[in-house]
Amino acid sequence: MVEITNKALGPRVVWEKIPGGGARQRVLQMGETANLSLADPKDPVLAAWKEAGEVVFGAQAAEPEDDDPAPPADADLDGKTDDELRALLAEKGVKTDGRWSRNSLLTQAEKVKG
């Protein structure tokens, strides 16, 4: 059994092992966590989702979404909202994603601020 959490912006289908040796599809809705016996733990699609951060396993699933290392302290940037940071980055030509954490926004803003 493995704990798996869907962090993607939509549902993800995983193959779950069932008694008797078969497998069935299990739909994990956005944000859902389930303990599953995976039919193929080395499934390449599941591995790609894991690498992209769309699904997380085990203890990682319990961690908050904002698990980036803390960026350097900058009082000016720290006082800005996430939307203000996105606007600043857009002005500098950095394309942000709606899934960027606050720490990611602050880190990138610090890099382009100079």
Give the secondary structure arrangement, pairings included.
Elements lengths: L1 E5 L5 E6 L5 E6 L4 E4 L7 H8 L3 E3 L1 H4 L12 H4 L3 H10 L10 H12 L1
Antiparallel strand pairs: 1-4, 1-5, 2-3
Helix pairs in contact: 4-5
Please characterize this protein's 3D structure.
With 114 residues, this protein is α+β, with helices and mostly antiparallel strands. The chain folds into 2 domains: 2-62, no CATH class; 75-113. It has 5 helices and 5 strands, in the order ββββαβαααα. Strands 4-1-5 form a 3-stranded antiparallel sheet. The protein has a two-stranded antiparallel sheet with strand order 2-3. Strand 2 and strand 3 form a beta hairpin. The termini are far apart. The relative contact order is 0.16.
Provide tags for this entry.
three-stranded antiparallel beta sheet, 2 domains, two-stranded antiparallel ribbon, alpha+beta
